[in-house]
Design brief:
Pnp Oxidase, Chain A; 6 helices
Amino acid sequence: MALAAHFEDGVPLQGLVDEGLVAKRCRDLFSKRLGSPEFVRRNDGLALIVQTLVVDEASVDPYPLTQLSSWLESARSAGEPMPEAMAVATATIDGRPSSRMVLLRGIDHRGLVFYTDRESDKGRDLKANPFAAALFHWFLPLHRQVRVSGAVEEVDDDQSDAYWRSRPLGARLSAVISHQSEVVARRAVLEQRMAELAAALPVETGPPRPERWGGYRIRPEVVELWEEGADRLHDRLRYRSQSGRWTIERLSP
């Protein structure tokens, strides 16, 4: 398979005057991670072609979250700024969707874990309609996406407490005084609440975890791997859970 990369440092290759300089910069950027690239001329400008391993049914792990962990670590090692960032989509009981960026804070055979205010918009969505979809998107080391969808459950109190204690003091104070998604008159109100709480609590212990704040786990039922291919002939592999077993299917791009 070949990966066609039309961007280098966020700048489209086509339309740049000095294509030789662009080629050199791209070689320097990509060769550190993917080996020796080559360039071809296309109708829409200069394209960088990087030879990579084929993404097929035989090359991926039979368990989707193991494969996701591998791609996540590859993105982290390659310098992706925030590889754990994921968009999580929820829907109201009448099917009105919404999405937002959160941080993945745990992954194991059971699913993906993130933490939030359970009285927020997404918390209310999940209480009424306990299903969600998550999306990861990385440019490094390759242009990849992973989609995960399934039922959602609350993380138990012990796990939520353990993660709460690991958060910086300021983040804990903010979570206590800010009731996520509620209207607030102005920022100064939040700043005053935070200052008052900080003054009232010992720095050594900080505030306890509010009952409304905790973790959710997305238990995957469908996981899709996506990797960019030349001429938009992308690789898409979908894992589906059937009777406790995972099947892998190739999808048209």
